[in-house]
Amino acid sequence: MSILKAAIIGGGSIADQNHIPALKTLSDQVEVTAICSRDLSKAKALADKHDIPFAFNDAAKMYASGGRPDIVVNCTANNLHHPFTIQALENGCHVFCEKPPAMNGQQAREMAAMAAHKGKILSYNFQLRQTEEYALLKKCLSNGELGKVYHIKANFLRRRGIPGWGNFTNKSIQGGGALIDLGVHILDLALGILDYQIPDRIVANTYDFIGKAGGKGLMGDWDPEKFEVEDACFAHLSFSDNASISLSSSFALNTKMQKNVNLEVFGTRAGALLNPFTIYTEFAGELTNMEFPHLEETDIQLKNTAAFLDACTGKQSNICNAEQGAVLQEIVERIYQSAQQ
Amino acid sequence: MSILKAAIIGGGSIADQNHIPALKTLSDQVEVTAICSRDLSKAKALADKHDIPFAFNDAAKMYASGGRPDIVVNCTANNLHHPFTIQALENGCHVFCEKPPAMNGQQAREMAAMAAHKGKILSYNFQLRQTEEYALLKKCLSNGELGKVYHIKANFLRRRGIPGWGNFTNKSIQGGGALIDLGVHILDLALGILDYQIPDRIVANTYDFIGKAGGKGLMGDWDPEKFEVEDACFAHLSFSDNASISLSSSFALNTKMQKNVNLEVFGTRAGALLNPFTIYTEFAGELTNMEFPHLEETDIQLKNTAAFLDACTGKQSNICNAEQGAVLQEIVERIYQSAQQ
Amino acid sequence: MSILKAAIIGGGSIADQNHIPALKTLSDQVEVTAICSRDLSKAKALADKHDIPFAFNDAAKMYASGGRPDIVVNCTANNLHHPFTIQALENGCHVFCEKPPAMNGQQAREMAAMAAHKGKILSYNFQLRQTEEYALLKKCLSNGELGKVYHIKANFLRRRGIPGWGNFTNKSIQGGGALIDLGVHILDLALGILDYQIPDRIVANTYDFIGKAGGKGLMGDWDPEKFEVEDACFAHLSFSDNASISLSSSFALNTKMQKNVNLEVFGTRAGALLNPFTIYTEFAGELTNMEFPHLEETDIQLKNTAAFLDACTGKQSNICNAEQGAVLQEIVERIYQSAQQ
Amino acid sequence: MSILKAAIIGGGSIADQNHIPALKTLSDQVEVTAICSRDLSKAKALADKHDIPFAFNDAAKMYASGGRPDIVVNCTANNLHHPFTIQALENGCHVFCEKPPAMNGQQAREMAAMAAHKGKILSYNFQLRQTEEYALLKKCLSNGELGKVYHIKANFLRRRGIPGWGNFTNKSIQGGGALIDLGVHILDLALGILDYQIPDRIVANTYDFIGKAGGKGLMGDWDPEKFEVEDACFAHLSFSDNASISLSSSFALNTKMQKNVNLEVFGTRAGALLNPFTIYTEFAGELTNMEFPHLEETDIQLKNTAAFLDACTGKQSNICNAEQGAVLQEIVERIYQSAQQ
Amino acid sequence: MSILKAAIIGGGSIADQNHIPALKTLSDQVEVTAICSRDLSKAKALADKHDIPFAFNDAAKMYASGGRPDIVVNCTANNLHHPFTIQALENGCHVFCEKPPAMNGQQAREMAAMAAHKGKILSYNFQLRQTEEYALLKKCLSNGELGKVYHIKANFLRRRGIPGWGNFTNKSIQGGGALIDLGVHILDLALGILDYQIPDRIVANTYDFIGKAGGKGLMGDWDPEKFEVEDACFAHLSFSDNASISLSSSFALNTKMQKNVNLEVFGTRAGALLNPFTIYTEFAGELTNMEFPHLEETDIQLKNTAAFLDACTGKQSNICNAEQGAVLQEIVERIYQSAQQ
Amino acid sequence: MSILKAAIIGGGSIADQNHIPALKTLSDQVEVTAICSRDLSKAKALADKHDIPFAFNDAAKMYASGGRPDIVVNCTANNLHHPFTIQALENGCHVFCEKPPAMNGQQAREMAAMAAHKGKILSYNFQLRQTEEYALLKKCLSNGELGKVYHIKANFLRRRGIPGWGNFTNKSIQGGGALIDLGVHILDLALGILDYQIPDRIVANTYDFIGKAGGKGLMGDWDPEKFEVEDACFAHLSFSDNASISLSSSFALNTKMQKNVNLEVFGTRAGALLNPFTIYTEFAGELTNMEFPHLEETDIQLKNTAAFLDACTGKQSNICNAEQGAVLQEIVERIYQSAQQ
């Protein structure tokens, strides 16, 4: 198998600490040939650090420079996911784009359409799909152990986790707050259980009280004056087959745990908790709680990057694809719309 | 203060084990003078057991017999709450009616209207209001310790708690299942935090998979063939001030705890968990969890009956009144309607 | 169904506190018509206390007095199990005999032969068979959930539980110590898992160090001078199908728990722990521990007595029968023989 | 003191990770001068990594090359323990041989005889003797705190620990499975408590159900087709002074803990648990559990290697000597023979 | 042995619930023949309830009435301990007096002198001496297991335990607060370890902040306006042999536990904690914590009353005698004096 | 801001591992220019290791060499704190001196007087002031959350923590044992709560039983023959405003925990525990325990060094100053004097 050439767009920490190390580890399949950042010195510094041959401050130049990459990893800010992904697809590259897919449903649909048009892989980096626990949950589901799943409680809650760095509180760059940054991860997991159906009814509420009031931060200090997004979002999604999701996400909430990322899945034969993975069901006519004490932690970024490469080379892969990304982004948009009513 | 005369309508266990003992304990304020049950032998047996002077098998006869009671305690099945309450009010009695208020919103509104018309107290026996924990929650709220409450998670969940006795699975008698029997308790508590506002948006789903499939029971065995109601109900309520409630109730659900009755309350200054009562807030610039290890258990039926008597004698009382009952019943009806969509 | 007549032989606490109350509770099936004890005053006192019509100090007189019982419950000391059981069977009665079956294998075989000859039920009161946990274990076994069971660790251990009363340390009355008094219970459970096979190899050791040295007692004080039996017994049983049992029992042992009664069952598909009931197996390709938090405690004496009555009236019953008793007693004898080598 | 010269035979991970680092740490007493492996490149790689002057692919060449080592560390596969140890002793070297001593009792006896003949130290690397807990157990024993020890339960159990690498499932190389690889460690500890007596009676059973069926592995994946050894072994050993050992070992067993290595020791004055070290006894007339929360972990390989060097230089040492190794190996052989019956 | 006659003085709950039931249980040694209370109806009611032949409202009348009791149990308020005890001794009775001995050292010395003069037993009801834990502590001490004890931390702390009934906050009746009511118990235990020596140096502080401020009560509500005593007392006692006690007692203190009654005893060979009883020492050269999980709870009032009867009949007894009472009371007085400085 | 020049006096591990690394981390404010040790080779080795330009074996030479340091860090033994601090102040340097301040009160007062005379900062390295927990305690105090603090229990206890190295048991070098080495830390914290008042009454006892008897060490082995200091000290301090401190410190004590460093602070409005930081108070009329689960660990040496630099540059600082050091040292001296009585 020939080695794929990958280019990175965006010089932030997600490139530096997640994507480039994962790609480097998979050096038998891929090599990183270029990095592109608006700030050329940043691009060069990363190129030096990770032994990447070329650094650019303009993606167009990169494509023009010859040596077109097979793969583009889009590590830019949310509002740049759409333009840089479209551009990369137009240049004939597979794209591995950071989450969320885009700023709104329209952008995500355009991105999916372009990928289909070009016959290229577009996928989004929802790496929580790769935990041992979620893999086991999906296996139980496909084995029929859960029966039909009819309700899911999906939480990604932080007590005081408004990041004190980056653009996380800037609406025009991020497109939103806790939902679009955190909730999307757990919404992706929940939708994965329900065959990525489109809900027919949504009601939601968003809040920004704590973000705008300020207070103790556990992920650095934020500026309440510049807090433009929701710090918490609660939504109920109902599907045409009568399944439902109760989705909660927060940057800041007066709750116990510093961080609570979990799914509770209720099926006709059994229920499941994601973390720690547990099944609640009947066995030999009695109620049982099944624990799995020997599951191991895995490098989920590495597994997700490998899954993307599998997709690029035509193999079976469990990565979030372009169509799923469009469905998810449209749901996010509808949640925000509902919260405006 | 003169002693009030109370009559009991309905000869089931709720009369025998809850209401009559509470009234007997409050013998300085009230005496039970009559008991009425369709089954006269049942009425007589209870009269004997509890030293009640008169037993009837027809409420009309009771009212006609002279010695009109001041108070009627309506312990009948859900579908009889409306007729016997209306009749008692028409006969000039205060009424202490079991929950839920009625079969639907229209009935509850008629009951409230009749109580207003007659100038009598009508209240519903939502005795969970009387725990030390809820009293403390309300005190914290009125002291401003929680700030404005904007979201509540309210749960009344049983793992396998479909009662194997009574009419709990009969829709025409009960009006519904987990929501109308269990969920109403915790909905009452949640509405009590939000000033008993009327929600402007509701989306809900109900299920009956486990009830209809049958299985292990932890409250006796039920007959899946006769299971006509929902075994689980999940709803999201949104209010005009943007507050919201996520309400979950179940008779049967594949979950861990045998019984889980709780509120999580999220306010701008603090959050609170009802059981065990805990506050999550900032103190001296740091995040704190406040525990209250010395709260005592109380006899909540006794306290609720005493609160009803206070209302009858014109005192301040925290009981669920006729208007609140009508609001709650209408919400229940709207939840069921949403779940039909 | 006609009511069976039962006579009790033996006036000790096992009659007073276990058998008579259980029989009384089952008054729709059985009535206790006579009690017989060497000490007539003891017999009369129990007859008074439990409303039993007749009291005797000689079983022969009882059988001669007319009104032959249908059932005899043999609550005598171990060395009298054989004569009173044989006598009762000869008199045409079903016999419910306390454990252990007898003093040695020969006696137990004679008892079984007489029961067969007379066509009567003879069973032994191994009531630990009736726990919810053992019932569930047997159900898992028959469902095939455990696969083939090949090894069992069976323990009935007390740290300092040499009874300070009765004849527990008297060899000529009891026939032995920890094994014949305690170990038989758990041996019965283990044999029940292995189809009550007869082992082909046994090696065992018995000890009496602590019993003869004396020390702190947790079940009263015993007299080390009169300690004639084993305080601990460890044995390995190997069966012709290569299954094996490791059996440990003690009255006194320098170990942690005051009392430890348990089975660990190792099968090809799953293992099981009896208390708290847990299954260790694979599920969906991962290792799981299955807990059963909602099992309830039951009145095991009542269930065992009811099972005996079922047997007497020709119904399916899970009680220890005469043949099983003979197998078990023979194994006990072989264990003692091995320990003498 | 002059520095001893050591040669390593066998280039596997036990040499690389255990023996060579321990010898290097003890550089004031010993230097590693040569390494020998059938695969010369392996020998050279290890020599490079650990700064060892000479590498050989043939032990005979090594001995012939001049610079005879004082010490040979035999890190070969089980079936080579005998030939390479005999050869080393013949060449006048002390030998530190990996466990188990040999493939059978005959080999181990020959090795002990040769060591005696040559006046050289031969010892086996049972490093679990060197834990703080075992040292304390032995001290309590020699102080008389336990009285006479009469029964020991010795366990080395893994739930799913069939190694997915090496020759652990190959009978002709390993000589057996769970017993010869794991059980020997804990048998050595138990025998050390009982003065390394020879048992007069043994009954044992071995199994291979899980190993041959396949399933989830927690130490890599194994090939059930090539599984030739026992996955579990249960044995009862009885000694002429009536002491006994119940020995359990497994590569795979449907049990709770991933790994359970422990001794329970029952003495006339006290009992002891090895991990966490606890004594159960009487004190001031009451029963006490004595815990030792401040014991420290030690580098048991380092201590065992040091103990071997002590033996080589004529000092007191607690290492497993040649005679003990022969006794142990003979017991292992008799256990396997018993299991064949 | 003839039966002793006992009279009770004082008709409060300590007589009703502690002393009379204990005396009744010991009916083979003692009978209660009279009860005396200022309030005759109270005396008569208790006489009826407990089947006591005579009731008086004046102790003098009782003594004059013939049938002089052998024993007087003084259950009066603290300020009446002295007069009623002196009177009883003058009337030739043994006296079992409630704690504290008296209002000050002078009274207690007079009481001891009168008892000595009359040759009668006077003892004080410090029943905490009778726990299994304290008995074991004393046994370890006398066995030499602790070596010489040189420091004791003695605590009797309540978080919010100002009694809402009785005279506990009235200084002229009680003589003080937390120290004289609660601290005396644990001081008695500590002095019992140090041979009831007299300290040569004392420094102490008392406080009444919470008592005078009011607040939440866990033993009923108290009136801060009438709070005249200390709510907390901290003292350091140093003895001529250099031993020392750190004594803390409180009715109210902002601390974690609702009630904390304990001793920590530091000796040269071992330390001990009273509850749960634990010894900290060296064993076999290592540090051990010795726990005693099988100690049983005992009826300490019954044991203390029996110990008093033993003393009255000339038997060995571990009860607090008149001289010890005088030492203890003098220490209490000196603590209060130190706190005034 | 110009960079301060610092010189280190004393070449022990406290210099090597605490002070020099902290100063290096603060390289934007300070540079280490010289190190001085009686043993020149030690000085040079540290200079090499930490890149310090100059090494001396005589402080006088250092001052004479030109390039006078702005700051001297006095890391010498206790008995040299006074002379080297006085010398440094005379040479116009700020001094950061290790704890305890000196050998006695007179020395500490002279040091404070010299610092005042020279207008230089002298402070002592009580770095426990810098924990998040103590900062929060002080904040609660200044916010009035605790009300007036009236009693403090201050403990620095080790079970067997007599250091097996250094001069810790040498009285002429150290000036004492557990109190002067460990107790001073927690005394400093307690005095910091009480505005560093001077107590008017002190009673204390010191012991050396375990130190002189020898035994198991958890911080190396010590020589009981050379044990000249106290192994435990218990003191009660009473202040003119009636506040009090109960202070306990030990190198060796027969107690449970290996190390127990804590404050319990009792105030009129609330109490506090330092580790884990908890507040005990009333809230909304109920008793609450406030926990702070999200406090972070900090580098307390770094913070204390930074605080010293702040003081040197005229900024607000919470470091222990010369006057506080003198008060503390005088209290230590009075405790030792009291223990001699």
UniProtKB/TrEMBL annotation, chains A, B, C, D, E, F:
The GFO/IDH/MocA-like oxidoreductase domain, residue ranges: 135-270
SUPFAM superfamilies: Glyceraldehyde-3-phosphate dehydrogenase-like, C-terminal domain (SSF55347), NAD(P)-binding Rossmann-fold domains (SSF51735)
Gfo/Idh/MocA-like oxidoreductase N-terminal domain sequence ranges: 5-126
InterPro entries: Gfo/Idh/MocA-like_OxRdtase_N (IPR000683), Gfo/Idh/MocA_Oxidoreductase (IPR052515), GFO_IDH_MocA-like_dom (IPR055170), NAD(P)-bd_dom_sf (IPR036291)
Pfam families named in the record: GFO_IDH_MocA (PF01408), GFO_IDH_MocA_C3 (PF22725)
Superkingdom as given in the UniProt entry: Bacteria
Protein name: Dehydrogenase
Protein's organism: Dyadobacter arcticus
